[in-house]
Design a protein that fits this description.
The protein is α+β, with helices and mostly antiparallel strands. 70% of the residues lie in helices and 8% in strands. The chain is built from 14 helices and five strands. A five-stranded mixed beta sheet has the order 1-2-3-5-4, with helices on one face. A hairpin with a 2-residue loop joins β2 and β3. The longest helix is centred in the middle third of the chain and has 98 residues. The chain is rod-shaped.
Length: 434
């Protein structure tokens, strides 16, 4: 049984029990008055009390009606438990009013109804200020409905006076019945309060657990944020290193190769040397532009101005003019559309491969092919350089590999006969120009 259903069951039992107590007390009082009148003993009864009692029917109806109104307000308060505080306070005030009314109708001979009101007040209270108000209200209510404290002051008639109209055995039965009902009502109230306290304790434990989880989540979030910031810094450093290597390294390689060629031709062909130096100057200026763009996270200048095929063609023309190498380019996937990040990777692979062929392989002939097979694009670069029997990954190859892995691509290379590189990336878009 859930906690909420247990609360409802206890309260329903308390409602029924208190209804029995109201009917017992008010009914016995009303019947005793009728019996005294029928026995012609009204004058003797009035001499024993200091105030004239209510009419029997009025006494019974007022007590039962007041109690039923109290139960109605109690149920309404539970139904509107999450409404505005002013509305809950108004309902609670009505409960107290009907509690006092029903108790007064019974001449304050049964004050068990206070426990119903107190249980509702305790369940609805939240916050330290409300606890203070609750304590004052409970003390005030109990003081009002307690016969020993206020009953004599308001000339209430004790239940014992009404019991004189019954026989000894009936009196004992009525007293015993009311005592049992009062005890059971008190037990139900204690159980109700114990469950309420236990529920509040569990709720506090749950809130504490949630707070602990939140603190742990905040701690992990801070650690994650710090790690993410560290990774972002590392990625940015790697990006700048790749970009500077690809741009500045490519430009410097072309410049060095061009200057070497110029020194060779200086005495033989001065005019050709001037043209060569002009080309070297253009490559240097383009390298400066690419470095600036790399620092500001922009794409290569050639890709900003031209489409991919034209950008790669211009790269090859500039590299060949500056270095004197013979570079052949064949694009078998010219009709494909590529996303910007794919275009940049293709461009950088061609740039890095030609730079390595000239710088490390001292190649004079380079052959570049971009081809398509199923959903894969392959960039192949083959040169006639010196090659190497055992390839050690340098800065350029590592960053070429990193760029390809970002697109779920791969890189293969071999240096036994010149140097050969094959880079593959999946074709994500799969569209073609019309």
């Amino acid at each position: 049984m859930s906690r909420e259903r247990a609360f409802i069951s206890l309260q329903q039992a308390a409602y029924i029990l208190n209804l029995g107590a109201v009917c017992l007390v008010a009914g016995s009082m009303a019947y005793s008055i009728l019996a005294i009148v029928d026995a012609m003993e009204a004058e003797a009864f009035l001499n024993l009390i200091r105030v004239r009692p209510w009419k029997p029917q009025t006494m019974l109806v007022a007590a039962v009606t007041g109690y039923l109104c109290l139960v109605f307000c109690s149920c309404l308060g539970q139904l509107w438990e999450n409404r505005r505080r002013a509305l809950r306070n108004a309902i609670m005030a009505l409960e107290m009013f009907f509690c006092i009314g029903a108790t007064v109708a019974m001449n304050m001979n049964y004050n068990g109804l206070v426990l119903l009101v107190v249980s509702d007040m305790v369940r609805g209270q939240k916050g330290s200020k409300q606890k203070v108000v609750l304590g004052v209200a409970i003390v005030g209510l109990y003081t009002i409905v307690n016969y020993n404290l206020t009953g004599a002051y308001f000339n209430m008639i004790p239940w014992e006076q009404f019991l004189t109209a019954y026989g000894t055995s009936t009196q004992a039965f009525l007293r015993g019945s009311l005592s049992v009902i009062s005890s059971m009502n008190l037990v139900l109230f204690i159980l109700y309060m114990a469950m309420l306290v236990q529920g509040e304790y569990r709720e506090r434990e749950r809130i504490q657990s949630l707070n602990d989880q939140l603190e742990e989540a905040n701690r992990k979030l801070k650690e994650y944020a710090a790690e993410a910031e560290k990774n972002a810094e590392m990625r940015e450093r790697n990006r700048l290193a790749r970009e500077i290597h690809d741009t500045l390294g490519h430009a410097l390689t072309g410049i060095v190769a061009g200057i070497d060629a110029s020194l060779t031709m200086l005495d033989i062909a001065p005019e050709a040397t001037k043209q060569q130096l002009t080309k070297i100057g253009e490559v240097a200026r383009q390298g400066i532009t690419d470095v600036r763009r790399s620092v500001s996270k922009l794409r290569p200048d050639a890709l900003e101005k031209f489409d991919l095929e034209r950008a790669v063609t211009k790269l090859i023309e500039d590299t060949g003019a500056a270095s004197g190498a013979e570079i052949h380019f064949e694009n078998q996937a010219a009709s494909l559309k590529f996303h910007e990040d794919e275009e940049e990777v293709i461009y950088r692979v061609v740039q890095e491969a030609t730079t390595n062929a000239i710088r490390h392989g001292h190649a004079t002939k380079i052959h570049i092919v971009i081809s398509r097979a199923d959903q894969w694009l392959t960039i192949t670069v083959k040169d006639d350089g010196i090659g190497c029997s055992e390839v050690k990954e340098g800065f350029g190859l590592k960053h070429m590999q990193e760029r390809l892995e970002l697109l779920d691509g791969s890189l293969r290379y071999e240096g036994s006969d010149g140097f050969w590189i094959a880079a593959r990336i999946p074709i994500r878009w799969g569209e073609e120009y019309g």
